[in-house]
Specification:
The chain is an alpha+beta fold. It has ten helices and twelve strands. The longest helix has 13 residues. The structure holds ligand MTE. The site of ligand MTE has 16 residues, from loops.
């Protein structure tokens, strides 16, 4: 597993201070809890700077929780927050099967016993908008290890809850339900890959994928599957929802890459929610130092 350091978010990415004022509690909690432990590794280095970050840019809680993609709760950006009540995040469990020595189910109560950390990640959606989100979560590898992956396991498949009775969006064939995503095993075990259970130190709301969702900051947002109920370890690449729906538009890897364009639009610029100007999109969304080695012999145009 590559050694990981977390990159600094430059001060050029600063937005209005007002957005940070209401974050004081979160930041204080973060500074006490994390700097006391193995902190520097846990947070992007900007979090560890002297001013504690009232400066660096984090998207407002309001934007993060009202501008969403979650087709099970509707296809427009404002639908998921309005229809959040359709998703009942309790009771909840995740079933882990496939190429593991100890297949089984784990209840959300037990999942929540895994210690969480706060990590501020840049997120980039394939639709060319981006956010900076203070996630609360734990590394996916910590969950997978409990089930003892076998050596033959090369890929991980994730599935969202299937409940068309309540999740009205699943009554429409926009995608094949349930929503399915996948990672290569080394991507899944990478320390940047997070299972998120909260944002801004608060429990995840349904619109963001309660009670637990995936976060992979160097990939387009659609890889971050929400409200996960099933995980399966495989020896072959799983078929994923977006890849099935439009294979020429949504590849399995979906690494953020300003040089590989979507067939219907270019991918070299993005707009941070809350800003007007467009900024340059960075290779691997800025996490190149941490993840480029995973793809060193791959043609990223072919494996997009
Ligand atoms: N997960 C499920 N189950 N259903 C979805 O429609 N949308 C994806 C991803 N995860 C989606 C999903 C897309 S396209 C994006 S950009 C992110 O969730 C958005 O996450 P956010 O709303 O928390 O920012």
């Amino acid at each position: 597993m590559p050694k990981t350091s977390f990159p600094t978010i430059p001060s050029s990415e600063i937005t209005s201070e007002e957005k940070f004022i209401n974050r004081r509690d979160f930041i204080q909690k973060t500074s006490q809890g994390l700097l006391a432990s193995s902190a520097a590794l846990i947070l992007p280095s900007a979090m560890a700077d002297s001013e504690f970050n009232l400066k660096h840019e984090i998207t407002s809680y309001k934007d993060i929780t009202t501008y969403n993609n979650f087709y099970e709760l509707g296809t427009s950006k404002s639908d998921p927050s309005k229809n959040a009540k359709w998703l009942k995040p309790h009771p909840w469990s995740i079933e882990v099967s496939g190429l593991v020595n100890k297949p089984g189910k784990i209840d959300i109560e037990d999942i929540l016993k895994i210690p969480t950390e706060e990590r501020v990640y840049r997120m980039r959606c394939v639709e060319r908008w981006s956010m900076v989100i203070p996630w609360e979560g734990f590394e996916l590898n910590k969950l997978l290890q409990k089930f003892e992956p076998k050596a033959e396991a090369k890929y991980v498949e994730f599935k969202t809850i299937l409940d068309p009775e309540n999740l009205y969006g699943q009554r429409f064939p926009v995608l094949q339900w349930p929503y399915v995503e996948g990672l290569r095993m080394d991507e899944a075990m990478h320390p940047l890959t997070l299972m998120a259970t909260g944002i801004y130190g608060k429990k995840l709301l349904s619109q963001n994928g309660a009670p637990i969702r995936l976060v992979i900051p160097w990939k387009y947002g659609f890889k971050g599957i929400k409200s996960i109920q099933k995980i399966r370890l495989l020896d072959r690449e799983p078929r994923t929802s977006w890849n099935k729906a439009a294979p020429n538009e949504y590849g399995f890897y979906a690494n953020v890459n300003p040089k590989v364009h979507h067939p219907r639009w270019r991918q070299n610029k993005e707009r941070r929610i809350g800003e007007f100007r467009r900024r340059k999109t960075l290779l691997f969304n800025g996490y190149q130092e941490q993840v480029a080695s995973l793809y060193k012999d791959m043609d990223l145009k072919k494996y997009f």
